[in-house]
Amino acid sequence: MVSDKYYLSDMSDRLPPLTALRAFEAAARHLSFQAAAGELNVTPAALSFQIKSLEEHLGAPLFRRLNRRVELTEAGLALSPQASEGFQTLTAGWRAAKRVLDSGILTITAGPAFTAKWLAPRLFDFAGNHPEIELRFAATLRMLDFATDDIDIAIRFGPSDQDDPPDLHRALTIEEWVTPMMHPDLAQKYQTIESLLEATIIFDDSMKFLKNSVSWADWFDAHGLATPDLHGTHFSQADHAIDAAQSGAGVVLGRISLGEAALRQGNLVAPFDTALIPRANFRVLCPKGAETRPGTRAFLDWLGREAGRMEGQRDGRRMVLAGG
């Protein structure tokens, strides 16, 4: 028997007003009518009225009103997660629609080192050819969400055999490799592979998260040389290791993606012909279908051309698969 305070609708599948559901979702999340009202910028009385109308629509209470707090009833507990998910989906859809219309803004996420050493030095070219596109960068290693974080393109480094999410399109793969890099003055001192055993070593630990990482021991092993316990300065960020090598502090097993600009400008040299290929690469991802949008397509094409420019650094080198 239903309390006379509520009634069962004869149209049980008819959705209630969106404003009432929004009021419930906020109140269920905060377990406070006052906090929910503040979030939605309405008075507590107005929010309470919306929730009451929702309860009448359902024919059952959604909250237990206690002395200074509220708690969800069984019906409220059933509705709360679905309501939250529904509003998250609506928000994501709304943001996606706005991004389609706002073709003049392109938001890219990449790691801090790749942004600083690879993207930033090249952006003048893209900006000069596409003044109509405003680029925004989120330089972070945190995995951002395309929908909730308003991301158009993600550049991520990870294992080569890593699968992409089914809703994403891999627009480009940028290969990585490493080789000893040093200031030109040091190249006069360390002219043989054996002489590097006496060099001041800079350790780039940025790829240690990989199951099959690369190390100085791997590089010397590719030449049939056993290595003693090498000592030197360790950097967790690859760009910091590259900066230290440019200053002449030592020799780094440098990543081509981050050292290529310095090599091209003559601030670093890579005099030895052996390079190691890690079992990892950069994946350039975007939501499926987004790759055809004019702004996204322009940036992806430019990215592909710039990545192709690095291929010249491979000329004359012996490429060895790390761990192979």
What report would you give on this structure?
The structure is a single chain. The chain has helices spanning 18-30, 33-40, 44-58, 74-101, 112-119, 123-129, 184-187, 216-221, 238-246, 256-265, 294-309, and strands at residues 63-65, 70-72, 105-110, 134-139, 153-159, 168-175, 178-181, 201-204, 232-235, 251-255, 274-277, 280-287, 318-321. The chain is elongated. It has a 5-stranded mixed β-sheet. A 4-stranded mixed β-sheet has the order 7-10-8-9. The protein has a two-stranded antiparallel sheet with strand order 1-2. The chain is built from 11 helices and 13 strands. A hairpin with a 4-residue loop joins β1 (63-65) and β2 (70-72). The chain has 3 domains: 18-99, Winged helix-like DNA-binding domain superfamily/Winged helix DNA-binding domain (Arc Repressor Mutant, subunit A); 101-174 and 281-311, 3-Layer(aba) Sandwich (D-Maltodextrin-Binding Protein, domain 2); 178-279 and 313-321, Periplasmic binding protein-like II (D-Maltodextrin-Binding Protein, domain 2). Mean pLDDT is 89; it is low at 6-11. With 324 residues, the protein is α/β, with parallel strands linked by helices. The N and C termini lie far apart (73 Å). Keywords: DNA-binding, Transcription, Transcription regulation. Belongs to the LysR transcriptional regulatory family. It holds the Pfam family LysR_substrate. InterPro entries: LysR-type_TF_proteobact-type, LysR_HTH_N, LysR_subst-bd, WH-like_DNA-bd_sf, WH_DNA-bd_sf.
